[in-house]
Amino acid sequence: MFTIDAHLDLSMNALEWNRDLKLPVAEINKREDGLTDKPDRCKATVSLPELRKGNIGLVVATQIARYVAPGNPLPGWHSPEQAWAQTQGQLAWYKAMEEAGEMIQINDIASLEKHLALWTNESSNDNKPIGYILSLEGADSIVTINHLEKAYQYGLRAVGPAHYGPGRYANGTDATGKMNANGLALLKKMEELNIILDATHLCDDAFWQAMDHFNGHIWASHNNVRALVNHNRQFSDEQIKELINRGAVIGGALDAWMMVPNWVRGQSTPQSMNCTLEIMIDHLDHICQIAGNTLHIGIGSDLDGAFGKEQCPYDLETIADLQKLPSMFEKKGYSPADIENIMHGNWLRFLGNAWK
Ligand SMILES: [Zn+2]
């Protein structure tokens, strides 16, 4: 079934993990044999051929770069300009993939419709470019509001103002506190440019403030629920209700610590914690129970988002295994129409509204 994944850090993997995503995952992992600089070496699950194999023809792909003020212990750049430069390198990689015929940027209704026609025709996926909608995870790299305009020009269509910790525009996961004047100005400019607000990673204070101030289109690209794993990175039922009222679609994520409670990074294993793809369905099902329908969920796997096979469902070898989901949803009693909505229809309806 044609599938959309609303959150993949592809350029980060290419440039910070040094992964040639044109290759099959097995080759990428083989090349990493012996490397110990990151915990997920040899445990990649994502590459462009695997996406084709899994019929995942459209993804939301990120630029990501953090600024850290003195005293902030998180990894990051010491100035916004350096963070901007990193995102421009990431953009250069996406452009190189376009030149190589491996990817294609989707940024309006016309390009979306053309791409869908290509991916839903009968021919083999082997030579089809992966469509990508460009998104920015954490807005620290937007040096000034004028940079957002530049970014829109090169195709940026969604922004999550926050990531982890304190941000220049909004505080994120594990942080607290409302947005400053710059954060509110960013939201205003996003609304003006019709850039989608990604509510993922906003801390609770910033989340509710953003809901009050932003009148544009809102999604949550990769987010699970607090009712099942109680952490500030997850959505409370009240947040889910608000997002549903705003017409949002929420993408279920496959990072194990967000799926099963009491995950200990570096110690827990997917097998010992019984972390399977079905757990993501539990999170998504919780959202459907609140909504009373299946119209507000999709997939935003975040696979290879600084974790690999050591920290994702053990019944997933590569991202192509997302194709196991339709039959799993069916077993849970979801109808064929529900399943099509979840695998692609809800994101497409959202984009149709946002870009009309
Ligand atoms: Zn994230």
Please describe the topology of this protein.
Layout: E1 3-8, H1 10-15, H2 25-31, H3 48-53, E2 56-63, H4 80-99, E3 103-105, H5 109-119, E4 130-137, H6 145-153, E5 156-160, H7 181-193, E6 196-198, H8 204-213, E7 218-219, H9 237-245, E8 250-252, H10 256-259, H11 277-291, E9 297-299, H12 325-331, H13 336-355
Parallel strand pairs: 1-2, 2-4, 3-4, 4-5, 5-6, 6-7, 8-9
The structure holds zinc ion.
For the CA atoms, what is the radius of gyration? 19 Å
Which ions, cofactors or small ligands are bound in this entry? zinc ion
Low-confidence stretches: none
> Tally of extended strands?
9
Structural class: alpha/beta
The number of helical runs is: 13
Q: Please summarize the sheet with the most strands.
A: 7 strands, parallel
List the secondary-structure elements in sequence, H or E: EHHHEHEHEHEHEHEHEHHEHH
Mean pLDDT, as a whole number? 98
Strand percentage: 5-15%
Distance between the termini: 25 Å
Shape: globular
Percentage of residues assigned to helices:
25-40%
Give a written overview of the molecule.
By secondary structure, this protein is α/β, with parallel strands linked by helices. It is 38% helix and 12% strand. The protein has 13 helices and 9 strands. Strands 1, 2, 3, 4, 5, 6 and 7 form a 7-stranded parallel β-sheet that branches. Strands 8-9 form a two-stranded parallel sheet. It is globular, with a radius of gyration of 19 Å. Zinc ion binds at residues 137, 201, 222, 302, 305.
